[in-house]
What we know:
The chain has 133 residues and is α/β, with parallel strands linked by helices. The protein contains 6 helices and 4 strands, in the order αβαβαβαβαα. The protein has a 4-stranded parallel sheet with strand order 2-1-3-4. Helix 2 links the parallel strand 1 and strand 2. The protein starts with a helix and ends with a helix.
Amino acid sequence: MGQSTRAAQQLEDLTKVLNELKEENVDKPIVVEGSRDEKALRELGVIGEIIQINQGLHIFNLAEQLAMQYNEIIILTDWDRRGGMLARSLSEALAANGCKSNLNLRAKISMLCKKDINDVESLDALVIRLERR
């Protein structure tokens, strides 16, 4: 498989997952680490609610607040070591407060992108690069 064919397949697969993310985001907020992550998702056409972890609250306080407002949260932290730890901590804290967390989309995006990027804030640039190939 040539590089352009691989890029086309990666773009197709990533587009499917991003469309799934947008559909889920209609009634479930996405939790990201920071403002650059939110900006990248907005550039990709995500229009639903996005909540940033880095707002000065302890992860358990944030989970408590989120669980009061939502039944399910989409967790989309970076797929580096720190992002993985954050995702696990937040997921456990949400569960302790009776709120489901969706880590499935994070896992899918991570699998498709981890050879190229390791953070949410680079997603929009990756999609542009893949489109150009």
